[in-house]
Amino acid sequence: MTLDLFAQQARNRSRSRWVVAGFILFFAWLGLGGDYIAFLATRDAPPGSYHHVFPAGGLLLTALAAAIAAYAWTTGAQKVLWSTGAREVVEPASAEERQLVNVVEEMAIASGLPRPRLWIVPDDDPNAFATGADDQHAHIAVTEGLLRTLSRDELQGVVAHEMGHIRNLDVRLMTILAALVGAVALIGDGIWRMVGRGGARLGSGSGSGGGGGRRGKKEGGNLLVLVLLALWVLSWILAPLITRLLAMGVSREREYLADAMSAQYTRNPLALASALEKLEGAAAPTRAIKTGSAHLCIADPRGGGRRVAGWLASHPPMTTRIARLRAMGYAPNA
Fold it and tell me: Residue 1 has what pLDDT?
């Protein structure tokens, strides 16, 4: 496998900036689009009636997007960890936790990064993820099932994979995406309910009033308003899906890079390949990890979905990842 790690890191960082900018622009469209529809709907209203001329919605949603990004930047990691019910490993309470601490310290040295804070997620399914704003404020969380399932070498491969995400600053983008995916879904749900109530009033009101020579112009204007309204509502309907697909796309690409970096840090790509085989074989979902944070995990937390390849999958096909790692270790594929 030919791999230019530094070129991929530079390309991923550039794409990260565009993805974040795209989120803010999408919010701006949702706000300004609504303002423009309201402007068209009210511009021919009689004197004394309400005329929507100030883009309050656009300014509000753009500011809200910036605030969400800032909030996700400063507290996103804590919110993700909180949502999983994870507990921090301050003093190892068992031999498994001591082994985890030792492995993380080894991989921190191998990657040249500070030792991240460690967390245990109370879930029997084997899985892991990294989160944080940068390499100085990073966290690695593993499930109880992962500690019980993997050998020391396999655990080292998984931890090295997560250190790769930290080294590439994937954690920053992926944590922000987790917050934005949730925010878009939440705001979209609220706006959808408002549109459901207001759209009926707009539709009933648009056909009344006026007449005479202005009738043709008003009918054309109403048609334009309805078309734009349909596009605007469609944007809100698709927003959660678009943001989730974007997060999935980012995740798929970065998983390959993190797998390669794990091989670089451990010099043992077959250990991570073996770990992924065990994760793939786990049938139960990782219930402690919510759908909005699925792209953070080393394996799709939906369990059976790990075997599903395609554009709706949150992770690249396990078989492809394992085959690539086996190729790095010069091992035949099963």
Answer: 44
295 within 8 A of 251, measured Cβ to Cβ: yes
* pLDDT one-digit tens code per residue, 219-273: 556 777 777 778 777 877 777 777 767 766 666 777 888 998 999 999 999 999 9
Mean of pLDDT values over 203-214: 46
What's the average model confidence in pLDDT over 101-122? 96
Edge-to-edge strand order for the sheet containing 87-88?
A: 87-88, 117-121, 138-143, 128-132
Smallest CA-to-CA distance from 315 within 299, 303, 326 is with: 299
Is residue 272 helix, strand or coil? helix
State the alpha helices, DSSP H only, in the chain. Answer: 5-42, 56-84, 95-111, 144-149, 152-167, 170-205, 215-266, 269-281, 318-328
Q: Which is higher by pLDDT, 134 or 20?
A: 134
- Residues in contact with 273: Cβ distance below 8 Å, sequence separation at least 6, in sequence order: 157, 321, 322, 325, 326, 329, 331
Active-site annotation holder among 154, 162, 255, 280: 162
Half-sphere exposure of residue 292: CA atoms within 13 angstroms, side-chain side: 20
Q: Work out the pLDDT band at 212, boundaries 50, 70, 90.
A: very low
Radius of gyration of the chain (CA): 24
Distance CA 319, CA 334 (A): 10
Question: 């917050």: which residue's tokens?
Answer: 179
SS3 state at 143:
strand
Pairing of strands 138-143, 128-132: antiparallel
Does residue 162 carry a catalytic annotation? yes
Length in residues, the chain: 334
